[in-house]
Amino acid sequence: MGNQTSRKGASAQAIQDHYDLSNDFYRIWLDPNMVYSGALWQDGDSLEEAQIRKLEHHIASARAYGKASVLEIGCGWGALLKRLVNDHQVSRAVGLTLSQAQYDWVRSMDLPGVEVRLEAWQDHQPVKPYDAIISIGAFEHFASLDLSEAQKVAAYRQFFARAREMLVRGGFLSLQTFAYGSAYPRTSAIEKESTQFLAREIFRETDPPRLANIAEAIEGYFEVIDMHNDRLGYAKTCKEWLENMRKHKAAIVALTGEAVFERYQTYLSYSYIGFKTGNLDLYRITLRRLEPKVVPI
Ligand SMILES: C[S@@+](CC[C@H](N)C(=O)[O-])C[C@H]1O[C@@H](n2cnc3c(N)ncnc32)[C@H](O)[C@@H]1O
Hints:
Elements: H1 12-19, H2 23-29, H3 47-61, E1 69-73, H4 79-87, E2 92-97, H5 100-109, E3 114-118, E4 130-136, H6 149-165, E5 167-180, H7 189-202, H8 211-217, E6 222-229, H9 231-247, H10 249-256, H11 258-277, E7 280-289
Parallel strand pairs: 1-2, 1-4, 2-3, 4-5
Antiparallel strand pairs: 5-7, 6-7
The structure holds S-adenosylmethionine.
């Protein structure tokens, strides 16, 4: 799986520690398609509907409909890949994940046109450039807590440079990531406590970006076409997940033990507070590959 020492973000081991906990565990409290990222809500939506609305947003944002090949960086349990080939006439949908459990799960769906790979974006060598790229909820893992701001920006620049290389000319990248918001200075007590807890207990070797990091990192590679901050949508998603967990506490405890239940309850409560207060943001960004060479008129 490539040279991990040159990595600036979460290693395969750190990713597997989280996502390979148990597919049955995540099935209990995520929606039926097992989408594990902030949903896009409209009045009256169930969690499942709001997750599908979010997937549809990214498919439209990446202009993926009817394309020959689409790459998903961080494909989770495959909900987007499935939608691309079943509902959006995409001939080949390639998904990357570092989680063995997710990889096995997507493989077992056996979807014509879907190729899942247990591989980091840093190692992926496309046969030819993709027509569109979508990445939802993976960018958070691309830098770790021990990095300086400059090192984080450098890590993100590596990602955008690589994503640009993997895209056709004029291609779109639809990105979703949560990020540190602007509500508190980064040194405030609540932020420090929750950041340390999440990095230690939930998402090891992982630290989310700030908007300024992303803005700096895309320079020369991508331009912003559209961007929304939907932090309240992520707060509502966390609330739904938490309620599902509490409703099914007995089943979860039987599966994973009380300590895991408590840990995830704390994680989702901290996340809910973060998104509700603006300590955390949730960005959906439509990016277009920059073509620096202009023919003078
Ligand atoms: C929170 S999950 C989101 C999954 C899915 N996009 C969704 O919304 O349900 C993060 C995903 O990013 C993947 N990931 C993390 N770091 C990665 C890397 N360097 N290369 C490829 N995938 C990575 C994980 O394996 C996981 O599938």
